[in-house]
Specification:
Order of helices and strands: HHHEEHEEHHEHEEEEHEEEH
Strand order of the largest sheet: 6-5-9-10-11-12
Distance between the termini: 35 Å
Oligomer: single chain
Length: about 280
């Protein structure tokens, strides 16, 4: 292979599996090249990512070491992504009867969901989550792309258990919107005790579903290292969970006048003029 071909192939492998550690000897064997040659290729890739401000390539020393790609985004780019998403969410046709929002088109867009997942991965990578957990079904696309960007497994709690899951743990929680008790279940095989878990959902009003997931993680004796949602409402002001990171805040839904207002969350807004990589 020519160098240009080799660099393209290595870049593709790194970007497709963020946080995955590739050994230099593995690349050397795959491309029939010396390790020193692969190191030179990686230096060029590293310089390109730095120039584009789109991530970084880390070298890990030691016998089990190698190289990995870490997604990065600047604070300013983060704000631009979320602000553009807010503009899409303010389209009047998204308002459904009862004041609900239509979000299916966003969940069905791989490019949009990938960008959202990358943002959450950048935010929570320092917490070193070992699993990303959500509840079926609307939160699955965002949680899946976040898990991909973190290179960790996705675990999905279900609203009813299935015989194919084997032994399960089930918790009851009160739905904040319907004021009735619901259940969520998770197979005992899905999570080991003491695992570091990032909890995710697409939408949060009072936080009852997130509270249910917290209770479920307590039953598994897991450590929750982060809580994240795409959209949270401003009301009620007091949520059932604390320290949940949202990208977007829903301020108002005026169903009669077909108008709604959303804005980047306080955390995103604080990064608006930050040019450094997060």
């Amino acid at each position: 292979m020519r160098r240009s071909q080799r660099i393209a192939a290595i870049t593709k492998a790194l970007v497709e599996r963020p946080h995955h550690v590739y050994s230099l000897s593995g690349f050397a064997e795959q491309f029939a090249a010396a390790k020193s040659t692969i190191s030179e290729d990686l230096n060029l890739i590293r310089q390109t990512f730095e120039a584009m401000r789109s991530g970084r390539v880390e070298t890990i020393a030691g016998a089990a070491g190698g190289v990995r790609y870490i997604p990065c985004v600047s604070g300013r780019k983060l704000w631009q992504r979320v602000d553009a998403l807010c503009r899409r969410l303010e389209e009047p046709q998204r308002i459904l009867p009862g004041g609900f929002l239509y979000l299916n088109d966003l969940a069905a867009s791989p490019a949009t969901i990938a960008e959202i997942g990358e943002v959450f991965a950048v935010r929570f990578a320092p917490e070193r989550p070992q699993y990303v957990t959500t509840i079926e079904t609307a939160g699955i696309p965002i949680a899946l792309m976040t898990a991909h960007a973190l290179n960790v497994p996705l675990v999905v709690a279900r609203r009813s258990s299935r015989p194919t899951e084997g032994s399960v743990l089930t918790v009851n929680y009160e739905s904040g919107s319907s004021r009735r008790f619901e259940t969520m279940s998770l197979s005992r095989r899905d999570l080991p005790a003491k695992a570091r878990v990032l909890l995710m959902d697409d939408f949060m009003r009072a936080g009852s579903t997130m509270r249910g997931m917290l209770n479920l993680m307590n039953e598994f004796d897991c450590q929750v290292v982060g809580k994240a949602v795409l959209i949270e409402t401003l009301q009620p002001e007091v949520k059932q969970v604390q320290d949940c990171i949202a990208l977007i805040q829903l301020e108002e839904v005026d169903e009669e006048n077909r108008r709604l207002r959303v804005k980047p969350s306080h955390w995103v807004e604080s990064k608006r003029d930050v040019d450094e990589l997060l």
